[in-house]
Design brief:
single chain, 178 residues, globular
Length: 178
């Protein structure tokens, strides 16, 4: 799995590209939380509870079904954000599902059930370019953790930041033409 730092890259860069008016600060914060929520499935394991299959890590919380359901949280915030319920749902859904897509691009693991509840087949995307992150804090703050972080800077952050900057430039050029 990518680190939490790279999971939050998607909402950060989306705000960068769409602008502060489209994605206000509270919307960004909810999007960042939504981007890491799928990994809360690891909490039972930390407490000594062993779950396997769809209830375990990289189980149903890493699926389109979960992202669609969790997207409903956006409805609670729609008025506060000044967005239609549809746009608020879409924001939370997209941020949540981005987690699953990034996890499907990792070099390790056994895939994610992207299409659950329609199918429990686990997918790993054919371009596995994100190094699997160490889970323990000791291993995370080691040479291996530093290598993973460097990999994510190049494979996740650089492309996303480039896309966000291009979107921002396009948005600014569009304003000038009006």
């Amino acid at each position: 799995m990518p680190t939490v730092f790279s999971h939050i890259a998607v909402p950060i860069v989306a705000r960068m590209g769409l602008g502060k008016r489209v994605v206000p600060a509270s919307m960004l914060l909810v999007g960042m939380l939504a981007a890491i929520v799928p990994d809360f499935d690891g909490i039972p394991r930390l407490l000594g509870v062993r779950f396997d299959g769809l209830l375990g890590h990289r189980g149903f919380t890493h699926s389109i079904g979960f992202a669609m359901a969790f997207g409903l949280c956006g409805l609670f915030f729609a008025r506060r954000w000044g967005k239609s319920p549809w746009k608020a749902w879409l924001w939370v859904f997209a941020c949540t599902f981005s987690h699953s897509l990034l996890d499907a691009c990792t070099t390790g693991g056994f895939g994610v059930p992207l299409l659950w509840p329609f199918s429990s087949v686990r997918f790993s995307l054919p371009w596995a370019f994100i190094e699997i992150s160490p889970i323990s804090l000791q291993r995370f703050f080691s040479g291996r953790g530093a290598a993973v972080f460097r990999n994510e800077l190049v494979t996740v952050w650089l492309p996303l930041l480039s896309a966000g900057m291009l979107m921002g430039i396009g948005r600014q050029l569009g304003k000038r033409e009006k």
